[in-house]
Design a protein that fits this description.
single chain, 5 helices, two-stranded antiparallel sheet, about 25% helix, alpha+beta, elongated
């Protein structure tokens, strides 16, 4: 089995795994806005809502941002309700890095275009990870453009303006490439550019 084929299989596996929160009920806890917790079986929906069952035999209940602030799956990811600065919408979004500055990710699924007949090739199908950043204890998050985009440095600099050392490290693409090595991991192939995690982690560790 070639290395490229192995990476491809890992990518497919991770894509399926990331969708499992939407396809099946999993054990977890709902942290409610009134301070209480609900433990049971949880499933996320594409409409930023949560389906909840106390046990498999119980009738499902549906919750959203009005009642829930945070979702924690047992031994797995944590999702929080945050408000997009751009769209003003409440998003149920995964927290990737926790600290003074939080990094969040949202996976966008593109089903692609079918060539027409059943069984025909599908063009453009795949996933895209959209990253957001937000201050600790803030309800608002901002889209973080790709590192290759011009707005990336401006957006991240605004969020980290209290740390001149870090600002110097990200002032241009050359510095970013020097201080933050680009890595592509077979273990986490969906995260094609790990420098985002490295940057936010560095800021949280060195800019207190």
């Amino acid at each position: 089995m070639t290395k490229k084929f192995t990476i491809f299989l890992i990518f497919i596996s991770l894509s399926i795994s990331s969708q499992s929160f939407f396809n099946t009920y999993k054990k977890g806890t709902l942290h409610m806005r009134d301070g209480s917790d609900l433990r049971g079986l949880l499933k996320l929906t594409s409409g930023n809502k949560i389906k909840f069952k106390k046990t498999k035999k119980d009738k499902k209940q549906t919750f959203d941002y009005k009642e829930v602030s945070r979702v924690k799956f047992l031994f797995e990811e944590e999702f929080l309700y945050k408000i997009s600065i751009k769209t003003k919408r409440h998003l149920l979004i995964k927290r990737v890095v926790k600290g003074k500055l939080n990094l969040y990710s949202l996976i966008s699924y593109n089903t692609g275009l079918s060539m027409g007949n059943p069984g025909s090739p599908v063009i453009g199908a795949g996933t895209k990870t959209i990253y957001y950043v937000g201050k600790q204890n803030s309800d608002y998050i901002e889209v973080l453009p790709s590192i290759d985009e011009k707005k990336f440095i401006k957006t991240l600099s605004k969020q980290t303006s209290d740390c001149q050392e870090f600002l110097n490290m990200i002032k241009d693409k050359e510095n970013i490439e020097y201080f933050f090595e680009k890595k592509i991991s077979e273990r986490d192939f969906t995260n094609k550019d790990s420098r985002l995690i490295d940057m936010i982690t560095y800021y949280n560790s060195h800019c207190n």
